[in-house]
Model the fold of this input.
Amino acid sequence: MTEGKIDLQKRNSAIGEELIRVEHLKKHFGKLEVLKDVNQVIRRGQKVVLLGPSGSGKTTFLRCLNLLEQPTGGKIWFEGNEITAPDCDIDKVRARMCMVFQQFNLFPHLSIRKNITLAPVKLKLKSQAEADADAERLLGRVGLLEKIDAYPRQLSGGQQQRIAIVRALAMNPDVMLFDEPTSALDPEMVGEVLSVMVELAREGMTMVVVTHEIGFAREVADHVVFMDDGYIVEEGTPDEVLRDPKQARTQDFLRKVLK
Amino acid sequence: MDKWFQQMQAEFRLCFIDKDRWRLLLTGLGNTMVISLFAVLIGILIAVVVSLVRSRWDTTHERMRPGPGKAIFAFFDRLCRLYITVIRGTPTVIQLMIMYYVIFTSTKNGVLVAIVSFGINSGAYVAEIIRGGIMSIEKGQMEAGRSLGLNYHQTMWYIIAPQVLKAILPALANEFIVLLKETSISGYVAVMDLTYAGNRIRGATYSAFMPLIAVAIIYLVVVVGLTKLVGRLERRLRQSDGR
Done:
């Protein structure tokens, strides 16, 4: 049996296995309770889309998953290890669940090449040569290879966000977290970023996406979560939640967004 | 006119050539440079530590779990604040004299005392400059670094620090120029710095114009040279601006 086959088998059996488990997650900022009691299981290969009005807690929920926000209650497991435990090495976990931000957050003092290769090289996951090769391959895929020696400030928002996605991808993460990746973009640039994300989804990447793009949710998600007021109000397949919502708050929200 | 010129020549000879008085200026300049250089280094060292404690406390103490770790951290933050308040709140010359006459009474090495004193003084100002620089970097930069698995120190070093350096360079250059000129009070603790040397020549020759103007010009040349150097560094750091 060749090694490739073993890999494939492993991968196939891995699909559907539990990746992230969230139990009774709570988060408050001072007196403001943002997450009241959130429970969720995310499986390998799943594309989860988080919807909800602003202030519903969906971004905070996402940021709790890699502990950019420290939860005030509840537990989170990643691949069976509790990451909310005090002795958990969160840096190791974060290297495998990379995040794409609303404001891109590229490093302005570094070239695109360095933006992409810095973390994998410094964390000794790859040599500089390997990281360079990966950066070139990934940039080619998003159509930005000729920008490899440019600086972030010289690029449009859409280009910066595609590079931010490449930067996260270069870590070979097990899951990618997207925090409203298209909300800061000019309308004509939303498409180019979404199409990269759609392609990623097709390749089987596990994705958790906070977005207002209902079209994206419909096309890509296999699990849609609607949050409001610190709780998950409704969840299910896109058909169930988007086409035929049961809860009044979901119906109300969709009416407003789809108008 | 001719007479004036001859008089100037005579004064020049009296102040700098006779009895090799130029050597005084040279020694003075040497001491000024040594004090400034080492004081800057000590200042930066203190400033980096103090600004890291202060900025990390400011950004994270609300999210820290209560416990002994937080208490120790709080103590160091207070200590840093106290240091900055005391240093900024008292005249440099008083600090220097306290150092020389009260704290280091056993040493007669004025240059060393001056280095330590000016270093501690400069550290407080530079610390606040660096802290301002750190606070001016968007929070998203730290988050982006941490979300890629880099730890706090790696993110600080590879991502935040280069941006901070670029942002604070003009303020830093300003602080070093101020420090260089502030060392002119070293004479208070019997250190032969450039100003003291000029003043000695004035006292010996009863000629004020030549030595004082000469001292002023030497300071000016050093400062202009320093400014040029910083300008070159700034241009190099501006590479990523795309302009």
The longest strand of chain A covers residues 18-29. Chain A touches chain B through 30 residues (CB under 8 Å).
